[in-house]
Structures are given as structure tokens and as C-alpha cells.
């Protein structure tokens, strides 16, 4: 699904995008950009919308698409929510989530809104990285004709690693992206290491298969595609 996020907060936009890896999420800051985006679901930060909140909702409801409102628990923003008109087509097309945002709560709200707005919609979403095809919500990865089923956390971790191929990712970033900041104190020390090991083994991310998933000492992990590294090294070797 194509989802537009009307917000001035780059951190919130990034968190929402990580919460919805199976969807195409884009941040917008101008109403004119929203008109061009033609989203299937709109997420609006109440503070960012300001006096234009009602106008944004009218745009979203012509024709009607579901809307998720993000608001802080303050008198001004609560008053803004209370003053909003009801959705013209269906009152179930609008929902709200309070800050600070929690990844799992955002994902649950969006899933519910999409189910209400598009009851006949097939939930399956496909992401492709080279020859690896990721399918959710089944959490299936297909490569070289072989299908592997991952757990929800393993799938989210694998998508994150493939999305950042060749880049080192810190343990803190992996934890926040896959488990969420709300789990910081409850997450066992070895949980990330165990999940990385499972993803490496299940997807066969080994040098003989063209990939290297390694530990970056004192920092985190990095997934590299060896064919890309060899191509980059070839010109240097000729000099």
C-alpha cells in the first residue's frame, strides 16, 4: 500500500517507515505534495498540520481514504482532535495514535484501518533485493527457487540488512528498528546475536553463496554482497 506521512519530524517518518516495512511510505510536508502522491492511507501529525488539519482531512476524504492521526497528549492537540468533523463516508476511516510513537502500536493501527477501508485487499506485500524475494505477512523469503519461512523478528531483521546492503548497522539501530525502543530494558543481551545467526543460517548468507554477514567489532553487523565487492576491487587491482 502507498502511505503518505504528513509530518515535519524526520524521526517520526523514519520510525513509521520502519514499522511498516511491507508498505511504500513517503513523508510529505506540503499539501500540494499530498495532492500529487495519491496515497491509499494518510498519516497526519496534528502538530505539523496545525491550522490546515481540517483541510488535509477534506483532501483525504475526496475520495475517501483512511487516516491515522498522530497527536501528543496536550490540551491544544486534544482539542484539535475533538473539533474535527466526522469522516463523510465511514466513521471507521479515521483513527488516532498518541505520542511518543511505538512501532508495534502504529503497525496495529494501520493494519486495522486498511482492513476496514479495503476489506477485499490482499495483504500480501512483496519486496525484492536482487534475487531474494521477501513476502509478507507470510514472512517467506525465496531465493534460487527455495522458500524459507522466518519468524516475524527474523523477517524484519533480514529486510533491514538487505535494505542496507554494504552498510554497517549498529546494535542500537537494529534493536530500535526490529524490537522497538519500548523493549530496550526487556531485551536480553544475546537476542540480537541469536537472531542474526538464525538469519545467516536460514538464508544461507555465506561467502560460498555470495554473501557475508559479519560482526563489526564494538558496533554491530554488516551484510555484504561479495560480487559487488569484487567488482569494486577489480579496477583498483588493475592500476
TrEMBL record:
Domain OmpR/PhoB-type positions: 124-225
DNA-binding region ranges: 124-225
InterPro entries assigned to the protein according to its UniProt record, in alphabetical order: OmpR/PhoB-type_DNA-bd, Sig_transdc_resp-reg_C-effctor, WalR-like, WH-like_DNA-bd_sf
Keyword entries, A-Z: DNA-binding, Phosphoprotein, Two-component regulatory system
Alphabetized PANTHER family for the sequence: PHOSPHATE REGULON TRANSCRIPTIONAL REGULATORY PROTEIN PHOB (PTHR48111:SF40), REGULATOR OF RPOS (PTHR48111)
Protein name: OmpR/PhoB-type domain-containing protein
Organism expressing this protein natively: Herbaspirillum hiltneri N3
Amino acid at each position: 500500500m502507498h502511505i503518505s506521512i504528513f509530518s515535519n519530524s524526520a524521526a517520526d517518518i523514519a520510525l513509521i517507515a520502519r514499522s511498516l516495512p511491507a508498505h511504500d511510505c513517503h513523508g510529505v510536508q506540503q499539501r500540494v505534495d499530498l495532492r500529487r502522491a495519491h496515497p491509499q492511507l494518510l498519516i497526519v501529525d496534528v502538530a505539523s498540520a496545525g491550522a490546515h488539519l481540517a483541510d488535509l482531512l477534506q483532501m483525504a476524504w475526496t475520495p475517501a481514504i483512511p487516516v491515522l492521526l498522530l497527536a501528543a497528549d496536550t490540551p491544544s492537540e486534544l482539542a484539535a482532535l475533538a473539533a474535527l468533523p466526522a469522516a463523510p463516508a465511514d466513521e471507521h476511516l479515521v483513527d488516532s495514535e498518541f505520542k511518543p510513537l511505538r512501532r508495534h502500536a502504529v503497525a496495529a493501527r494501520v493494519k486495522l484501518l486498511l482492513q476496514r477501508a479495503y476489506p477485499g485487499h490482499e495483504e500480501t506485500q512483496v519486496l525484492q533485493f536482487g534475487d531474494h524475494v521477501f513476502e509478507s505477512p507470510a514472512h517467506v523469503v525465496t531465493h534460487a527457487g527455495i522458500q524459507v519461512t522466518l519468524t516475524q523478528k527474523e523477517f524484519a531483521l533480514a529486510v533491514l540488512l538487505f535494505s542496507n546492503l554494504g552498510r554497517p548497522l549498529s546494535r542500537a539501530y537494529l534493536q530500535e528498528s526490529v524490537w522497538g525502543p519500548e523493549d530496550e530494558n526487556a531485551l536480553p543481551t544475546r537476542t540480537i546475536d541469536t537472531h542474526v545467526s538464525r538469519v545467516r543460517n536460514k538464508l544461507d548468507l555465506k561467502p560460498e553463496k555470495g554473501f557475508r554477514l559479519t560482526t563489526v567489532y564494538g558496533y554491530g553487523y554488516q551484510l555484504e554482497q561479495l560480487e559487488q565487492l569484487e567488482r569494486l576491487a577489480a579496477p583498483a587491482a588493475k592500476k
